[in-house]
Amino acid sequence: MAASITHPALSSLYKINSNINGIYSLISFNRRISISSVRSSSAVATETEASGRGVRVSGVLVLIAQAGEPRSERMAVDQDWTAVYPTAASFKPAAVPLPVRMGYPVKRGVPPAKKGNLELIKIPNFLHLTPVAIKKHCEALKRDSVTEWPSALDSDEKCMKRFPIQVQSKEFVSAGLSLRNPDARIVTLKVKLSSLNLDDHARKKMIKLSEERYCKDTDTLTITTDSCPLRKQNYDYAMYLLTVLYHESWKTEAWEQEKTRADMEEYEWEDSPSQKKVLDTLLRMRALGAKDEVEEGTREELLGQPVVQEYRDTMLRLKNEGETEENLHKYKEAVKKLFNI
């Protein structure tokens, strides 16, 4: 009777023991599965290494991509380089078939190679601006944005006659952090005074107002503007200055009427004492019998003789340039020819 009675405490211990045995069995089962998986993986790896093509999963061979040789080793000699570097880009070791090296040489060796070289990646390069690429860009601009050159303008003289004003500016190609260059806004305007519609008074006044901007040797007025932040503004300002100079030169102020010959900037031959003395001397020589030298004896003909024109040029050079040895020698020879000495 007592043997058939089950104590509640013993029943609980039995349940706990059963649960522990079940957990142990589950752990043992998982361990066997893990060991089997490791063995299967080792077998697959061995098969993969043997075949060299891929992994077989459930009877299907899965191919694995393998790294091939660099692109630089497969490039043709006559390839289109503009397709490799069409635009500005960092250095690509696999795309540049050149033995480029850069960096600090370790232990007196050679600089590091291009593969994995950060020094080559940090710096900018001009691999996209080869002569062939620049030529393609120019052809594209010529085809889309540029018109044909006029056939009538076949010489520099004709171009200067049709377009007397020359405007110069600079373009800069930058590879730094900023594409802006302060010198790109500077505009230089050049024009010859002989191409402008100026009389003697307006020409001299424009030269006086221009000061050092006028070059006497080339007869060129140069205006340089750089005070504005943009090139277009400097161009407009240069054209404005030229317009103001032109119109101001044609104005005649009241005080300019009081200007005498002694106030002139240069020596003038017309109506000068030298011209009058030469004319009087030639008239007296004609009265003495030298009628063969002058056909009509008029004032214009006397002053238009080659010897008189040579004397005029030497006198202007002597007065305006100064008494140099060369000018004095030419003046002496002109006087001797004038008086037939």
Automatic annotation (TrEMBL):
Residues 180-251 form the Small ribosomal subunit protein mS35 mitochondrial conserved domain. One of its GO terms (biological process) is mitochondrial translation. Pfam families: MRP-S28 (PF10213). The lineage of its organism: Eukaryota, Metazoa, Chordata, Craniata, Vertebrata. InterPro entries: Ribosomal_mS35_mit, Ribosomal_mS35_mt. GO terms for molecular function: structural constituent of ribosome. GO terms for cellular component: mitochondrial small ribosomal subunit. This is 28S ribosomal protein S35, mitochondrial-like. It comes from Carassius auratus.
